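Forgive a beginner's question, but would it be possible to get any protein sequence you like and the tokens describing how it folds?
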Amino acid sequence: MNSLAARLALVLASTAVLSGQIADNVLLVVNRGSQLSGRIAEYYQFRRHIPAANICRIDIKEEEEISRTEYDHQIAAPIAQCLHKGHLEEKILYIVTTSGVPLKIQGHGGPTGDAAAVDSELSLLYSDMRGQPHALPSGIRNPFFGKIGQRFRHPDFPMYLVTRLAGYDFADVKVIIDRALVARNRGKFVIDAQKGGDPEGDRWLRETVQAIPRDRVVVDDSTEVLYNQTDVIGYASWGSNDPNRKQRHLGFRWLPGAIMTEYVSTNGRTFARPPDDWAFGKEFGGSGQSLTADYIHDGATGASGHVYEPYLQLTPRPNILLPAYYRGRNLAESYYLAIPVLSWMNIVVGDPLCTLGSP
């Protein structure tokens, strides 16, 4: 075991469950302009017993991509008002957006650009409300990144953890909410390594294997693709960037609470449903790459994605994400521990309170 993997395993093994994990800590965002958003919010509020005071209603067009001005005035400002009016700034740790709330903000791409995911921008709303709004271009250091031994709380970490309840339709989202409530710490973490041609990404996958007990891991570092795995609770791979992966669907049997991540540039670009015969390499939603929404539709309870090109260095680190989740961190905290920057391209899909509990 190399030194980084050893340190991760030691800290995770000695750390109790540190998550808040109560409904009072969740702000649920509903777009009054979207019937789907309303249905999802109503169901999630009922299932998780979210207080009525923690429901924030905004008014914006039901489109996936919006301008920076629309984000500032029709999303960020009214959500800040909800938090301030309800005296919720400190109590809220997690913000949950819903299908029908815009997904991404138009702008220039690249390291000096200002394009970003709506959810990643919202993660900085806590610090924005307490001082000057964060500067652009996008890509602000995540203060929670890698803090695997620390509890997420305010003001220690001046940010919100933002996740999205989204899928191809209401049925997909209803099921991920239901699965989150019955998650248990069992099953296999499937790691499909050494497929993308970048040694650093492969190293993070190998470190993931070393940080989880061997009897809980299925790993392959050959050119073969791992299809048709059963009892899957976690998954990490190169996705459609693996040149040997030809099938859109993996054929996995996912357990309730299962999460995934992959090194794919635009897998969160849309939640519109492609045709049944769509395949990798054929453009859909501006790209031919794999789709985060497919994993949700196929049975995953949580997933990561990117609305525009994030670059490998700024994708979620599986060697932090999956061990943290295995050790009992909730879904939101596990993902944000693993995401290096905010005001960027990352999205997290799922119920933030979902947890496997301690192993």
In short: Residues 9-17 have pLDDT under 50 and may be disordered. Residues 184-349 form one domain. DSSP finds ten helices and 15 strands in the chain.
